[in-house]
Amino acid sequence: MMNTFKHDNLATDVYASEAMRSAAPVEKIPHKGTSPQVAYRMVKDETYAETRPELNLATFVATYMDEEATRLMNEAIAINYIDETEYPRVAVMCGRCINILANLWNTPEEREWKTGALGIGSSEACMLGGVAAWLRWRARRKAAGKPYDKPNLVMSAAYQVVWEKFCQLWQIELRTVPLTPDHLTLDPEAAVAMCDENTICVVPICGVTWTGLDDDVEALDKALTKYHKASGNDIPIHVDAASGGFILPFLHPEKKWDFRLDRVLSISTSGHKYGLVYPGLGWVIWKDKKYLPEEMSFSVNYLGASITQVGLNFSRPAAQILGQYYNFIRYGFEGYKAVQQASMEVAEYCHREIGKIPCFRNYAEKIDNPLFVWSLCGEYEKTAKWTLYDLQDKLKQSGWMVPAYTMPKNIDHRIVMRVVVRQGFSHDMADMLLRDIRNAVTEFEALRYPTTSRLKFEEREIQCGKVFTH
Ligand SMILES: *Cc1c(COP(=O)(O)O)cnc(C)c1O
After folding, report:
1. Atom of ligand 1 nearest to the CA of 273
2. What secondary structure does DSSP assign to 372-383, as a single string?
């Protein structure tokens, strides 16, 4: 049916309008438009959050910024970052953010403008770091007269999906080191054992998406140096610090995971995660300009400053850069530290309290970032009538989004649940969540029959040879 709305006039109420009384367009653009008020309501009503964003403990991405930051970003909504001749100050501000991050990560680069790039998120930033490593490797192989058609990349099996995309799109072999009960993070020795002359880089993760833990970058750096001496293969590190990049400098400045390590040539992070900016913003920094292949970059001059530009996207919103720079000024080092510390405390509190509930077992004893995962105790799981998927559903009834999922390959039989604590999740809210979890568990324990999700779980386990008796 064609939407024509011919009976509406200025006095027509929004919900009495013909547009509102008809089905929303799904396949074809309506022949005639409607009023801004009606269009607004229709889009707004459809996109109304199903849970309050601050109760969404699944996402890592900022859902809170203060009023001035929000105003600043809204006022910049029409600015395209790439229009640098029109908005040269935005490009300079972007360069300042890159400088600030490079220095937070202890860059040795002495140039006035450090080498880095902005991305829509860590995904774009990771891609750029990966492409640079691949091109550097290729140039080295070419120069040595060796084949350069079989590049590979080594990282933990608990990688974020962007690395799978990167390897697929650039045709690079992804070699993954499985997690084991003894190695809850990347095992450096096992990673080195997968390396060869075709390894473009190893990618440790600070703030592993699946577990919240940090891979030990310093141990990896050492292991790769030892391997270099023994094999002659000089393999660099790109750190995927999507979360950790904004946690470590503030909470563990003494910890070496960044450019202080020899092999760390590039680092990426998400400005919209613990950088505390609304989506989408990511950053990648190189240790020095010489590690950013020429063919990826072009230099431009604004107001006498030389700024290197690199990116997969061309047009992109500028508002996030203003938001990031605002945050740097607004919080300062001490402010960022306080915010991250507050999130860490709430996460540690939840971690401790979850650990006290008899049916649960935390994945790790201590947490590195303000997020953690837990599962049902092995013994408990044998006879339970429910799974963490049931708990996820139950919590959804009170508005919480707390995801349950299975772990990556090798420990993929394990169902875990994850809480990501972000700015905006207070101690009081943690108490509300914990109460809801405890109540749900009490309810599940009174079940007389297994839930559908439990039956499915058992079916899968039986296929793997397990026996159940109830
Ligand atoms: C979130 C995340 C990414 C992807 O980042 P976006 O900012 O969502 O594009 C990559 N790696 C890790 C470890 C992440 O946690």
Report:
1. 7
2. EEEEE-HHHHHH
Instruction: Kindly report, residue by residue over 228-283, the tens digit of the pLDDT.
Output: 999 999 999 999 999 999 999 999 999 999 999 999 999 999 999 999 999 999 99
Q: Two tokens at 463?
A: 């296929």
Ligand 1 atom with minimal separation from the 272 CA: 7
CA–centroid distance, 450 to ligand 1, in Å, is 36
Angle at CA of residue 210, ends 252 and 123, nearest 5°: 80
Tell me the three state secondary structure of residue 75. helix
Q: Is ligand 1 within 6 A of the CB of residue 242?
A: yes
Cβ contact 119:279 at 8 Å: no
Distance, CA of 404 to CA of 65 (rounded, Å): 27
What does the alpha-carbon distance between residue 388 and residue 168 come to, in Å, rounded to a whole number?
A: 32
Higher pLDDT, 134 or 54: 134
**Atom 1 of ligand 1, nearest CA residue:** 242
Indicate the pLDDT class of residue 469, thresholds 50, 70 and 90.
low
Cβ atoms 124, 314 nearer than 8 A: no
Global pTM value: 0.94
